[in-house]
Amino acid sequence: MIKLKIIKTNLNRIGSLKWGNKPNKIIIHHPQFYGGVEELNNLMINMGYSMIGYNYYIRKDGSLWEGRLVEAIGANCYGQNSRSIGVCFEGDYDNDRTMPKAQLNSGIELIKYLMKKYSIEEVEGHRAYYNTSCPGRYFPLEELLNGVKEHSYISIDGGAYSNYKGMPALNLIIRDYSKDILRVFAWVDSDKKASWAFDIKPPNSNYTRLFKNINKVINTRNGGFTFSKGAYYKIKAKGYNDMGRVVAENQIVLKVLD
Ligand SMILES: [Zn+2]
Question: Where in this chain does the record put each N-acetylmuramoyl-L-alanine amidase domain (predicted)?
């Protein structure tokens, strides 16, 4: 499960909220506004709303902020406020021609998380439901929608040697991985010193360059022990995206031959 950092807020509110939102879709917006969630909330109060109408707000720096609680009836899209989650991206994408990668990636991760949490499959821009240009003509909606539909994965394989440079050894092969994965760490279940590190741009010599069908043999463990002939080893692999978050996991059991 991906860990998301959603920043809790304690926003001003005028009057009380109505409860009973049953979201079956996620609607994407831009506020045509630059600034923090508290300022945006105050702006919406001044416009006559009881508080911010969106449920989540994503700043240009990628930080994720809580808006109106999802359980409350929203104020993000006419006709959809009792069955939607509104996700709003800071900026004015009728004028901002590019979206910072941090904001786009945070948006993709948040929406994937919400889709899973609320069993939602429908994700659209505001303009799909209402006569508006929102989330803006330059908003990278197609990239966002492709990103949330893409399933993150690592596919691994491997083998074992009873004698590799004089010692038993395990060979891990990274067969394939989704394109959001930039780094893979793998280790023997009970033994973190027996590990593999792959990266598409290896930062140092401990890493092996990550590409499809790459393999790496290891025969070192804790305290100079070697792997044992005839034994089984469980290898766990995790794939990390460019924000350093785990987006995919896999495992394999390898047996060292007698
Ligand atoms: Zn909108």
Answer: 11-136
16 Cα to the center of ligand 1, angstroms: 23
Ligand 1 centroid vs 91 CA: distance in angstroms?
12
CA of 119 to the centre of ligand 1 (A): 22
Q: From the CA of 126, how far away is ligand 1's center (Å)?
A: 5
What is the pTM (predicted TM-score) of this model? 0.64
List the structure tokens of 251: 């495992």
| Average pLDDT per block of 10 residues along the chain, 258 residues long | 81 95 97 98 96 98 97 94 97 98 95 89 94 97 90 90 89 92 92 90 96 93 79 94 88 89
Ligand 1 centroid to 246 CA: how many Å? 31
CATH 3.30.365.10 assigned to domain 6-149? The reply is no
Q: What's the CATH fold of domain 154-255?
A: Immunoglobulin-like (2.60.40)
